[in-house]
Amino acid sequence: DTRTLAAQWQIYINPLNNLVLYGIGVATYYNASHWTWRPRSAWFLMLGSIAMLMMIPASGDLIQIVTGYRRAAFIGASALMVLAFYKISTPLPNMLSVPLSKLGATTYGVYLLHPIVYQFVELLTRVVGLTLLPLVAIVLTLCLTVVTSLAVYSKFELPMILLGKRLTSF
């Protein structure tokens, strides 16, 4: 934590650096799926995890929140928040639940594709000779990333998941 996050960015964005988060997600799905909770318990867990995130002391460069005990605290609070979201059984209207479910299915694609889409947007703006405001570049990248991730999910990931289920079901 003696160097800035910017100086260590390539290390930070390495997928292996975040492997613990994926492991927690998989463990939550397989271990907590059979747990039954009262709805109020999940909401209290959500509020508690938010309070934990807000109380973790951090100052100086962003490296302070991704190293040492603060990283462990953030990972723990995030894991509790994911568990709370997973166990909250409040039904949502289709107008919200359908897009959120699609977004949830494509999150890994969003994670993997967003830097590539951002570089594409930067390259495209240079080739065309445009200068985009940072907010416009972010919104354009966000929209293109979600659309690209949905396409990759429906045309590649989902067929591979179905093939895997067929091959392992006998």
Beta fraction of the residues?
under 5%
Q: Main beta sheet: strand number and arrangement?
A: none
Low confidence ranges? none
Task: State the order of secondary-structure elements, H for helix, E for strand.
Answer: HHHHHHH
On the 0 to 100 scale, the average pLDDT is 89
Categorize the overall geometry.
Answer: globular
Structural class: mainly alpha
Q: Could you give the distance between the termini? A: 51 Å
Percent helix among the residues? over 70%
C-alpha Rg, in Å?
19 Å
Folded structure, characterized:
This protein has seven helices and no strands. With 170 residues, it is an all-alpha fold. The model has no long low-confidence stretch (mean pLDDT 89).
Question: What is shown here, in short?
Answer:
The protein is an all-alpha fold and 170 residues long. It has helices at residues 9-12, 19-32, 39-55, 68-87, 94-105, 107-128, 134-168. It contains seven helices and no strands.
Which labels suit this protein?
170 residues; mainly alpha; 7 helices; 73% helix; 0% strand
Fold blueprint:
Layout: H1 9-12, H2 19-32, H3 39-55, H4 68-87, H5 94-105, H6 107-128, H7 134-168
Helix pairs in contact: 2-4, 3-4, 6-7
